[in-house]
Write a structure and sequence with these properties.
Elements (H helix, E strand, L loop, with lengths): L1 E6 L10 H10 L2 E7 L3 H13 L3 E5 L11 H11 L4 E10 L7 H18 L3 E6 L2 H11 L7 E3 L6 H10 L2 E4 L9 H9 L5 E3 L21 H12 L3 H16 L10 E4 L2 E4 L19 E2 L2 E2 L8 H5 L10 E4 L9 H13 L3 E6 L3 H5 L13 E5 L5 H8 L6 H15 L3 E7 L6 H12 L2 E5 L6
Parallel strand pairs: 1-2, 2-3, 3-4, 4-5, 5-6, 6-7, 7-8, 10-13, 13-14, 14-15, 15-16, 16-17
Antiparallel strand pairs: 9-10, 11-12
Helix pairs in contact: 2-3, 4-5, 5-6, 8-9
The structure holds iron/sulfur cluster and zinc ion (ZN) (2 copies).
Amino acid sequence: MLIDTHCHLDFKDFSQDLPEVINRAKDSGVGIMLNVGSSVEGSRRSVELSKAHDCIYASVGVHPHEADRTDEKVFAELKTLASSGKVVAIGEVGLDYYRNLSGVDAQKKVFTEFIHISKELGLPLIVHSRDAGRDTLEILKKEFPKGNACGVMHCFSGDKEFLNECLNLGLYISFTCNLTFKNAANLRAVAKEAPLEKLLLETDAPFLAPQQYRGKRNEPSYLVFLAEELSKLHGVSFSDIERITNHNANELFGFNLKEASRIAYGIRDSLYLNITNQCTDNCYFCVRAFTDFVKGHKLKLDNDPSAGEILAELKDIDKYKEVVFCGYGEPTLRLDIIKEVAAFLKKKNKQVRLVTNGHANLINGRSVAGEFKGLIDRVSVSLNVETKEKYVAVCRPRFGEKAFEEIKRFIRECKAAGIEVEVTCLDIPEADIEKCRALTEKELGVDFRLRRYNVVG
Ligand code: SF4
Ligand SMILES: [Zn+2]
Ligand SMILES: [Zn+2]
């Protein structure tokens, strides 16, 4: 299922065939549509649509074009409307200096008042900003000085600098089908930089139909073209984009989607096994401190799973290139489980990889690399920094200073056991990347991979 987080099905463009438009959306997998109000009348119709259709949610707001006609009466009516139907947001609101259909001062005043209403009602903002980036940011920064904006920059069309400003404010970023236009190379370059964890999908129908239908009316069923484009840009599968953007939309708008914890979870063409939530490190950047989710999968478990529970999740392994012991903690805390499950996977001729902090010997009180022979093909060890002092400061290991040398010993033993090894480091400010690379390639003689801070999974 995909979620179209911004469409205008209340516009007269859809008055002749709305049932067919909704059915086509459902047939192409668009299960939720957020109909966005852009005028008082449009907001009323938006709420009506949300009452009439299970799959439609509503937002209420007035487009900046309407700012000159937006007074106290309008604010009062929209606040009342916001508590009816399935209203999940305030918007679209913002600034539009492209057509300047309302005065700049009025636009700023109305935008600010809508931000106050969104805070008062606890509803996220859907922000429209066209040719008004500087003023939009100035208002948002004043209203959200701690970078705690709850909302989305819709129909994103800015450059990388504007993207970073929006992300620093805490906003989600929503692209429309204009990302598929032949001449949208610059926008695609920006979209590639936007973290998956902050992306939303929208059509903004009836506007901006995808390249395949350029110049025609857009409609929610065309959202698939946008999802395909984003999956190509980010090098992930269509279902990855689907799951991640659904999770993001659910977090922001609260559609009450149920998201169950996952033991086995697919990303791209790898199947990851989440076998424990415990760890012997406490890295300051650990994703577990910030979220229960990785790439849209809920990884927080009530209990560590048994071998039987993990094996029961391996029905679909043929479609994956490799199976990875990884998850949301340190897998070698459960060495017996790794060995049992890996033996099953090797009987099925699967490539098996272990992602670890390299504490396996310390955890298990013996050298364990030999036990991985014939079970694990490749080990990815996160070392992150190049000295034991830095390791203690950054990863805060339970084993203290001796952890760093023991990780290096584990790496050497894996290599000696004929297992492929790669060392990963993050581009965190504490790490001297060239020294990390030299340590890995020259001293340890294994592969080096640099990972981006804040990109997990
Ligand atoms: S080693 Fe991985 S799971 Fe453990 S604390 Fe560090 S980042 Fe988190
Ligand atoms: Zn807009
Ligand atoms: Zn719109």
